[in-house]
Every structure is written in C-alpha cells, then in structure tokens.
Fold this sequence. Notes:
The protein is mainly alpha-helical. Helices cover 68% and strands 0% of the residues.
Amino acid sequence: MRCALLRRVRRTDPRAGSAYTYGYAVLGEAVGWFIGWDLLLEYTAIVAVVAIGVSQYFSFLLNAIGIHLPTWMLGAPGTGAGHHIDLFAVILCLGVAWLLNLGMKTSAKVETWLVFVKIAIVLAVIVVGVFYVKSDNLTPYMPYGWSGVATGAATVFFAVFGYDAMSTAAEEAKDAERNLPKAIILSLAIAMVLYLLAATVLTGMVDYKNLADSAAFAEAFNSVGVTAFAKVVAFGAIVGIITVLYSFTLGASRVWFAISRDGLLPAWFAKTNKHQSPSRPTWIIGVVAAAIAGFVKIGDAAELTNIGILLAFVVVSAAVIVLRYRSPELPRTFKTPFMPITPLIGIGFSIWLVTKLQEATWIRFVVWFLIGAIVYAAYGYRHSKVGQGEAVQTNDA
C-alpha cells in the first residue's frame, strides 16, 4: 500500500483536489475521502455565505440611488419583515456556476479584472477612511481580549481558506509546481495586511457595538456623511466579493471532480464539457449554494463552514510531517520551512480554533460526517480505482 501511495504522489502532482488529494496520497483513501467530503460541504456553504454578503451590498446600493425593491426578495425567511428569499444571492450563485462552465481561460480573464477592482476599492477604503478614524473607538483595541480574538478567528476562518482553493485547480495552472506555492504565499501576505488595515479603519470609524449587520463598510461611510463614497464602496464590494464566489465554486467543483475520477463517487460527475470544465459538479454546487443562500440566514450558513476546514488543515499539516520523514527522497519544488515546527504550529492553532466553535456547529459536522461514512461504505470503498489497482490518469501523467 505504501509503495502504491508513493507512486500516486509522483504520478499525480500537480493534481486537482487540494487537501483531498494530498491527504489521500499521504494518509490513505479513507482519510482522503473524509477530507474531500468535508470540503464539499464547506466550500458550498462558503459560496452561499459570500453570496448573501454581496446581496446585502447590492440592496444598499439600490436603496442609495433611490431604487426600492419588493421586500420579499431581499432576504431569507427570518431576516426581516416580509423576507421570503434572497433573490440576488440565488442569482449570483447560479451566475458564477455559469461563468465557470465557460472554461478556465474565459473565467480567469474575468476574475483577473475583478481582483484589480477589488484591491483598488480596498485601498481606497483604507486611505479615505483613515481620516474619519476616532481613537476612542479603538480603545481598547481588543475589547474581549484574546478569547474574543480566537472566537472571531474561528468564526470567520473561511475568509482565509480561499488560498487553498487555488490548489484545487493545479492541473489547469501553468507550471503549477513553481507558481502555485508562490501565488498562495504572496496573496496570503497581501490580503492579511489589507484585511487588518481595513478592519482597523472600519472599527475606528464606527464603534464596534454600532457596526451594521449588513453592508458594514458602506454603512460606516454613510454614517460619517461620505455618502457618495459609500456608494463606491458598495459597488466595489459587489464586484470584488464576486471573485470569492468564483474561487470557492471552482474549488468545490474540482474537489468533486477529483473524488469522482478516483472512483469514490460515480464517474458521471467527472465528465467535462467542451471547455474542459467539470460542468455537472459545478452546476450542482451552484444550485445547492443558491438554495442555501436564498433561504438560510447568513449566520447559520457560516456555521457550516469552519469546522471541516480547520480539521482539514490539521490533517494536511500532519501529512506534511509524515511525508517528509517517511519519504524524504521524493522531489520537492517547494519545501515547508522549519520542519516540523511549522506544521505543528498549524495543527495546534487549528485545534485551538476548533474548540471555540459552537455546539451546533459540531452537531452539523457529525451529521455530515456520518452521511459521508455511509456513502463511502456503500459506494466509494467498493468502486475505488486505486483500491482496485487501477491507475488514475491526469493531464500531466
């Protein structure tokens, strides 16, 4: 089994699937399955959460320019009087699925332009907003201490998981072995700095107790009288956050594609369209995310996302240690520095953040885990291509 797994690593790297593929190759099929099963839920729920966030900015922008839409289409049931469905969020989920089915070349061009717009708006928010920061609003800087920081980090951890989503499309990237690690690390560093600066400006402009539940940045500028710029922020948020929808829909579809290609789910899902896109998983994810976004509160949807992601980080960090010491001879174009300290730190922080999640999150995770166990026992274990001794062909094999 060990030799088979090592041949798999050599033969399929770079390869679609991200943490699923890595966990499968290093720690075995069962571990890989459950990582992939979790990622399908987490990615899809993240798409829904982000779509709801974009929808809120869209509603703010329309109201700001004097367009008032029927209340029934402005939110999920229970989010406001007369709300029945978040129609904008539904359309966004389906629209992104349609875009991805046009193929990586077309969708990547759109994504690149949207990212430029997003970064420009974030920089503008920081530069303009700093003039309206009140030092009293930032005192104390951490009103709930480190415990509050940890709880907040656990709740919004999915915000940094988009960097892993890049690796799900490794087979469709140019010179992925060299470019992907650099892209992930560089984008993480840039985003971290911008995230911290923007969050500090936001809480400096408005006391954290008075932050709006929706369209927070636009509402903050509105509250200090910069109404024209608030509209610009809302527009930028709509354009920019769509890139997040794109990344996670892409990630979920590629994980599903990889699982199906390995035989753990029916091969029907691994079929690609004329643009070489796995259209069936993409559309299913788009429809399911649209249903969640349209009818579930954003807080409830967000709770679905984090626990599986954090546990996937634990498994991948452990796999890095196992692979380094079990198979030091494997070629590595990128090596994790300060082994094994770096992955051990990742494991420790991930477990710590998991303990900060609510009980309801654990219950949902266990239910999804049990469903995954049933699917694997009934289908995946019996149809696994590697388990049957078949080679899994990839674009770079």
